[in-house]
Amino acid sequence: MAQERTDEELLAAYQQGDPEAFESLLRRYRAPLFTFLLRMLGDREKAEDLAQETFLRIVKGASDWEHRARFQTWLFTIARNLCVDQSRRDRFRRADSLDAEGRDGEPPMVESVPGTGIDPERGAASARIRPLLQEALLSLPAEQREVFILREQAGVPFREIAEMIGVNENTVKSRMRYALEALRKALAAAGVTEEAVTEEPVPGIGLGRA
Amino acid sequence: MTHAESHDLLLDLAYGELDAVRAAEVEQHLSSCPECRKEKAALEDARRMAAPIRELEQPSPGFDERILRAARAQAQLEHDGNVGQVIEVTGSVRPLGVDVARIDAHGPVKARSAERPRPRWIVRTAVAGSVAAAAALALVVGNTLETRRNAEKVAAAHSSDFEIRVQPAVPPVVDSALRDAEAKQRQKDEIEPRGLGGVPVAAPGQEKTHDAVAQMPSLRKRGGPGARMQGSGGDAAESQAKAAANAKKERAVDTVAPAASGALEGKLSEPPPSASPPRAAESPPAGPAVAARQDVARSLAVAKAQAPMAPGVAEASLGAPTVEANAQQARHAGNYLAAASLYREAAAMRQRGNDSSTAAWNLAHAVECLSAAGQFDEARKVRDELVRSYPSETTAISAAARALRQVDVPAARPAASDPQR
Fold this sequence. Notes:
The structure holds two protein chains of two kinds. Chain A folds into two domains: about 90 residues, RNA polymerase sigma factor, region 2, helix turn helix motif (Rna Polymerase Sigma Factor, Chain: A), CATH 1.10.1740.10; about 90 residues, Winged helix-like DNA-binding domain superfamily/Winged helix DNA-binding domain (Arc Repressor Mutant, subunit A, Orthogonal Bundle), CATH 1.10.10. Chain A is built from eight helices and no strands. In chain A, helix 4 packs across helix 7. Chain A is globular, with a radius of gyration of 17 Å. A two-stranded antiparallel sheet of chain B has the order 1-3. In chain B, strands 2-4 form a two-stranded antiparallel ribbon. The chains are: A mainly alpha, B mainly alpha. At the A-B interface, helix 1, helix 2, helix 3, helix 5 and helix 6 of A face helix 1, helix 3, helix 4, helix 7 and helix 17 of B.
């Protein structure tokens, strides 16, 4: 029954001193948040670190939280900002950066191994495509990548993405179009056809909640 | 709808962000615009190809642990300024022959270094069958965590050869979370900085003292357990409070050592499930247990002198904040039984003041303290009373249940708007 509470109700309960409400939020968002960061960074260890850091910031900030923005938006905003920071730190070591669009030179490192153990239910095609997809994602300019992942994987609406990253909605959608087109080309170049992926698009998490 | 408008909205359509009316308008345009249809098909192709991105990945199994620890600690801080929950740490307490101490952050307050007041982790041990040892250890471990110097003082004071090594199982990041939270809490409540031994140190400013003294008459009138513990009441109490409020750190530290030995010996000789608050002035000082009581009384006097007046307290429950402050103080000093009594008293006062939320929380704290003292039967009784009297206070009930290691919390949902404080 705790599952039926909205994110915001859970956070309000946590503000009142109920740690179990926070546990519910954590259960609800640990995988989506981790996945978001993994797609952004391509590195499980870093993704896990930043996901923990994100939740700890939620813990710290919970008492000041007001029910203006959705919890989910807050969560992903923190995570996204941590990615930007991480990217700045990595700038000296990596060609890839959130603030330096389409940097020259070396291809981005793909440190991620696609999951420990592949869920059989995910289907062979999907399992085969995911590493390619991750690679294609990391080849995107970071500003396109974040928009794409926020919308496609995290399920954040365009308007909220615009608020999160501080640009207008048209810019967000423009980046999204570029990202989709670039991914389509990259995957096609890697031999992935749309027929290979059989799943129907489904809405990302968060749609229709609160 | 124009072609340009429609084209702009194709993404929104693909992601289901259009309301039904707008979606129908775009669809209508699509039926007559091959270019837009092509664009839409390309978007959908790309989404299908990218579908695996939505599959969730799981972080490693230990992922939640430190987050939850921080969350629980913070939740408790939010409520009463204490770090909550019993937290397992590894430790070694040779004289007691135990290897794992269980740390209750409700224990004595610590300051990790003189220049940097720290969060209030600390301490109790729930060593089975040894309440007295637990109480003594609580103080000693607490001090060990604070400063080595202070720990040595305590150990020397009752000439035991204690060697305690406790590794706080608190990662730096959680620690910093708590530090921030506590800083905030301090601002909020204007609680005085706390001394090394977990005993409050007098504020350098004078206003606090005046405030505290100004509260004394109401204390005397109400004659709650706080006033009884004070000993005499009247002018003596007032001057005692003044003196305590002016006490320096050294004195605060001095208080700890005998309190520690008192906790050991006193509780060995007197382990009642619901000990009534000690009455320092009524019995002549004889033996360590009594000495300990006097120390409790003294530290409570300090607490009383510094108890901040809760804002917006109804006239009917004027003394409750003070009793609660005393309870908290006793808890910090490791005197869980006294703390539990005080919390129960405060709960009754809050109930008379129709503040059922705070009353419920006081009962929850009483349950926690009784559990910390190993008085589980009594703790369950209070828990039952809490559930019976305040069935809608589910967060408090949860807290009590957790203290008893029972997570079978009742089903009622706390109202999101219910103000806790």
